[in-house]
Write a structure and sequence with these properties.
The complex is a heterodimer of chains A (357) and B (182). Chain A contains twelve helices and ten strands. Chain A has 357 residues and is an alpha/beta fold. In chain A, strands 7-6-5-4-3-2-1-8-9-10 form a ten-stranded mixed β-sheet. The chains are: A alpha/beta (357), B alpha+beta (182).
């Protein structure tokens, strides 16, 4: 196995055991709630629409509470994190109400946001409702961020939101950035900028779109750029103590494992992470769509589904096919992330191959 | 009991990993030192939230004809369906032109004797694409001026099957008129 040191190979072998045990335990630790598909931006890499969807309206809060009540007797609420996603979660006017109900039930909660609607007043109301964590998307300097978000004021409002969070107390927050060919060259300057506005935790993502969009040169990093991004993150983690940088959780990264994020690769969808999508579908994470749905909260008990289904998420032996069939590193990866499979259960993208082949 | 045993096994494995100096999603340090929360304290979840960028796609299809100003069809022209954000003009590709050229070839067709073509692309669901018409065979079928035309799809009428991140198919028919180079 080239590209892996002996120390890492041993660690990966040990962690393989951890992964398998985690699948057997399948303790529900994170529940995503896709609380809306509405959004106030038109991000180039996303399909959310700014108008109210006539196909999938927002799920009523009471319906989601029923799903929470399904799991409450069986989990430790203090250890089960509820995350609101979308679309743009802040477009729901009842987020504070839902959050407070979760807080009263003992569940910590947080959200992902583009920051546009996060002013001082809204932040105060969210904090009064018990919000624990928030992630703000900021995809580069102004031109680059507004280009990918397709909004002239996206950058300004996101930075204002970040500056508010930097002064907030009792709140865990971070910034997430999607690296693409436009903002790749400015990463070094961008980290300085993030530090200057008070960011202490930064997560870096790369997009691997499906289908032909995977060839889109606007979003798809070249191999050199992808490796350069990971080299940059590794360098920051080793040398820059001002800010804690992590690569996203997706993909087995070969020799970069253990050096660009806090954990080793582990797709926790269906193992520790579940999602309730806007139409009630029960999935692993919100990036995994209809092809791997396990039920629907409108007619299934969420806890029963969590306990009795999710077999494909917890036993990844079925992924040993196609480009994975003869891969010598399969035991450390086991088919990469579930969101990278198409409707025919074929792997569309391998991070390791992207790095080294 | 089985769950407790598995958790103990994980604790041991993670501790060994910690001894190797390699972190994990639960680090040995966290497992060893995080106390059970008191019932009345604030809930303390993991600080990392899993996040992902998915990319919904739409299949775009454009069918049509390429004609000269006099109504005669033009054979042998390359027709390409291009993402709205690729930096190019009718005659020039900017940036990594070899990379972009390879990308363009994946969604191209050559006009038939009756001028017809059909091009397809799977791309982001903005509803905006461009058609690039290029004369790639010199004067063989006429000396035609390249054209770059904006195309807008009706995204309220995307048909076909929705599945996962695929949102359906947006289709359009068009007739393109090209000019001879002077």
């Amino acid at each position: 196995m080239r590209h892996l040191s002996l120390r890492k190979r041993v660690a990966l072998e040990l962690f393989r055991g951890v992964r398998h045990n985690d699948a057997k335990i399948h303790e529900l630790r994170t529940l995503f709630w896709e609380c809306t598909l509405r959004c106030n931006m038109h991000c180039r890499h996303c399909g959310s629409d700014c108008k109210v969807s006539s196909v999938t309206p927002d799920m009523p809060a009471e319906v989601f509470f029923k799903a929470i009540d399904d799991i409450t007797p069986h989990v430790d609420p203090h250890k089960t994190f509820i995350i609101f996603t979308g679309g743009e979660a802040l477009l729901r006017n009842d987020i504070e109400y839902v959050g407070l109900e979760l807080y009263r039930r003992g569940f910590p909660w947080g959200m992902v946001s583009n920051g546009y609607l996060l002013d001082a007043d809204r932040l105060e109301r969210l904090q009064q409702s018990g919000i624990h964590s928030i992630s703000i998307s900021l995809d580069g300097f102004e031109d680059d961020h507004n280009w990918i978000r397709q909004h002239d004021y996206g950058f300004q409002r996101a930075v204002e939101a970040i500056q508010l969070l930097a002064k907030a107390e009792d709140l865990i927050w971070d910034v997430v950035t999607c690296v693409n060919p436009r903002n790749y060259a400015s990463l070094e300057r961008f980290i300085d900028f993030l530090v200057s506005i008070g960011v202490k935790r930064w997560r870096v993502f790369t997009i691997f779109p499906m289908g032909r969009a995977a060839q889109n040169p606007d979003l798809q990093l070249t191999q050199e750029q992808f490796r350069g991004t990971l080299d940059f993150i590794r360098r920051c983690r080793q040398e820059d103590g001002r800010i804690h940088v992590n690569y996203a959780c997706e993909g087995f990264l070969g020799d970069y494992e253990g050096e660009v994020r806090d954990g080793l690769f582990h797709c926790r969808a269906g193992v520790e992470v579940a999602s309730v999508l806007c139409d009630g579908s029960i999935s692993g994470c919100t990036s995994i769509r209809s092809n791997f749905n396990q039920g629907n909260i409108y007619h299934d008990n969420l806890w029963d589904v969590w306990q009795t289904k999710f077999q494909k998420y917890r036993d990844r032996g079925w992924t040993r096919k196609g480009q994975c069939e003869s891969c010598k590193l399969f035991r450390y990866c086991e088919g990469s992330g579930m969101h990278l499979y198409d409707e025919n259960e074929n792997l569309l993208f391998c991070h390791y191959n992207r790095l080294y082949q | 009991m089985k769950i407790k045993f598995l958790k103990l096994k994980n604790w041991l494995l993670l501790t060994l990993m910690g001894a190797l100096g390699v972190g994990a999603c639960h680090s040995a340090k966290d497992v060893a030192q995080t106390p059970e929360p008191e019932p009345e304290t604030q809930p303390r979840p993991r600080s990392e939230m899993a996040l992902m960028y998915g990319v919904p796609t739409v299949d775009y299809v454009v069918k049509g004809k390429v004609l000269k100003a006099d109504g005669k069809p033009v054979k042998g022209l390359q027709v390409v369906l291009v993402n709205n954000n690729i930096d190019l003009t009718a005659d020039t590709i900017y940036g990594n032109d070899e990379y972009v050229e390879r990308y363009l070839q994946k969604s191209s067709d050559t006009t038939a004797a009756d001028g017809t073509f059909e091009v397809k692309s799977s791309d982001m669901p903005s509803g905006k694409q461009r058609i690039l018409v290029r004369d790639v065979d010199g004067k063989r079928h006429g000396n035609i001026q390249n054209e770059l035309i904006d195309v807008e799809f009706d995204m309220d009428n995307v048909g076909g099957q929705r599945s996962g991140w695929r949102l359906g198919t947006a289709e359009k028919e068009m007739t393109i008129t090209v000019k001879e180079k002077e």
